[in-house]
Amino acid sequence: NNSRLIAQILNGLDTTGDGNEGTDSDTDTAKDYAFAYEHILDDVASGFTLYGYWGTWYNSTPATGKRHTFARYAVTGNKIITGVPGGNFEVMGGYVRSQDRVPSSLGGNVQGDAFFIDLEQYFEKKGFTLLARYDFVDPNVNAANDRTEKWTVGYIRTLQNYLRLAMEGDITQADSNEATDYRLLTELMVNF
After folding, report:
1. CA dihedral 74, 184, 181, 73 (to 10 degrees)
2. Which residue has the higher pLDDT, 64 or 53?
3. Residue 87: which H helix or E strand, with range?
4. 105 by DSSP, 3-state: which?
5. pLDDT at residue number 176
6. How many other CB atoms are found less than 10 A from the CB of residue 110?
7. Distance from C-alpha of 107 to C-alpha of 18, rounded to nearest angstrom
8. Which is nearest to 11 in space by CA: 3, 21, 2, 1?
9. To which H or E segment does residue 27 belong?
10. What pLDDT was estimated at residue 44?
């Protein structure tokens, strides 16, 4: 079988931001629910995932606060194309929709959008991958000047079975402050 279904029932958080049992445990009997469906489309692991999360929270405690709900819906997918000169080519993408249902006294309902697209070319004989990625986040579609866009390029090379080098550069443009950030990241990963 090339698919699986995942479902979870979760406790909420207590006033300290923890979900553990004890004196400060979650005092709300409402549960959060998570659902995912994953499906592999072919022999090289191209596929997609559907995801949903529905939850409840209080602005203080259940006894004194108001109950609010939130939801997250997402889809991700990838397609690996074999036989491309030099190695394999992969296209990945994803989208997340957020909905927070909040009383107007606390700011009102909020809906957000986020998505990404990622392109990767693996050069098998040379043993490295080049990637390019675009990310977009709008945490409140009804608010102005809160979007963020990010462009990333990268290079990944396996040096030995247990050692990997990754280098990425990105440009981030945030509407909220009209600032542009430039970043270069180098990571040497040791695998055991």
Report:
1. 0
2. 53
3. strand 87-101
4. helix
5. 74
6. 16
7. 24
8. 21
9. none
10. 93
For residue 145, the 8-state DSSP code is S
DSSP string of 122-191? EETTTTEEEEEEEEEEES-TTSSS--EEEEEEEEEEEEETTEEEEEEEEEEEETTTTEEEEEEEEEEEE-
What pTM, to 2 d.p., does this model score?
A: 0.83
Identify the burial level of 100 via C-beta atoms within 10 angstroms of its C-beta, where 0-12 means exposed, 13-18 middle and 19 or more buried.
buried
The DSSP code sequence of 28-80 is ----EEEEEEEEE-STT--EEEEEEEEEEEESS-TTTS-EEEEEEEEEEEEEE
Amino acid at 183: R
pLDDT tens digits, 131-167: 999 999 999 998 888 899 999 999 999 998 899 999 9
Q: What residues form DSSP beta bridges with 32? A: 10
Cα–Cα distance, 138 to 95 (Å, whole number): 11
3-state secondary structure (DSSP) of residue 18: coil
State residue 178's pLDDT score: 76
The maximal CA–CA distance of the chain, rounded, in angstroms, is 64
d(CA 111, CA 100): 6
CB 117 within 8 A of CB 134: yes
CB 15 within 8 A of CB 25: no
